Amino acid sequence: MSVVGDRVKNARKRAGMTQRELADAAIVSLSQLRKIEQGDYDPRLETLRAFAVAMNLRTSALQATRDFEIPDSDTEAQWQPVMRALYGNIAQPDEPATTEGVQTMLGTVQTMISADRYREITVLLPNMIRDMDSLEGARGLKFKTLNMVASLLAQTRQFEAADIVLGRAVDVAETHVEAATAIDTRLWALLRQGRLDDARSLAVQWADDLEPRFSRATLQSVGMWGRLWLKIANAAIRDNQPHEVEDALSLTRAAAARIGHDVYVERLLGRTFGPLEVSYISAESHVIAHEPEKTLAIASKVPAPTIEPAGASRMRHKLDVANAYTQMGRYSEALEEFRIVRRTAPEWLVQQRYARDILGTIVSKRRTLTPDMRELASVIKLEY
User: What angle do CA 7, 13, 14 make, to 5 degrees?
Assistant: First the structure.
């Protein structure tokens, strides 16, 4: 029997529930629960959360393994030259690198990130990393490069490599606020792995260290502090801690009100903070809690973004809306949200397990699939 299966079974018995009662309360099939308790497979984080809600537990009390996918072979092959460069295993050029050259390359990469051209970015990264490493000083450039590379590694589910690069980024950060933007990347990676306690503890530590005095703080420090509390809210809702979610969101709303509008916290990676970002996370919290009507109510009032209209936060919000429609059985509307994301950020979409989970639910409810649905499933590599 698996550790997770043992924990679910023992918690169920302590709660005085039969398998049928827990399955019904969690809206999970009885056969699925039996397989989990027998150790036939480890459930997804979303399923564990459903069990935790039914038994009034924290999700992390049932966890034993991390909940993430490993990169596929195509992604690993694509990133091999980048990994060699990170470890210094790359030929050196005849001419020395310059600060201006690396800065120009960063600008080019920033444009590519905004345009969802990730495959092209990996072609440029080996030489960029080589040139960055050869520069004397230039800590600001080195930090930006390393944080960007780590973010892309996490985006492609290469979490161990991302963590190593983030350690290098924090070491060269010139300010505490700058270092916090690397911690923001690490928190995002931890949440993608289902490491809820680790994410919460790290976010609380840095939020406490960075807590600004609103009367004299810079917009970036207030925004960074707000983003840390958004990560705490994110971890809390997944860990079935609704009161902690509301406390965290109240602090993010205060930070957003202090700023008054959305601003860049980290320009290279397109990371923003403000009222819009808070709305996105509020909507996400409701869909995780299976309150799709509240998610759609928030989404209906969310204005068009003035910055980063095709950014990851906006695209994630569109998937949350798709998930809300799916939870309500409004599959055609969910698929329309998918089409928008596919048109806007196809390379981002293919890396999202969340997208596969939502579409997988839709597929499981349909007897036959339209050509459009089959094509979308192929694009995001959904097995069905």
Answer: 85
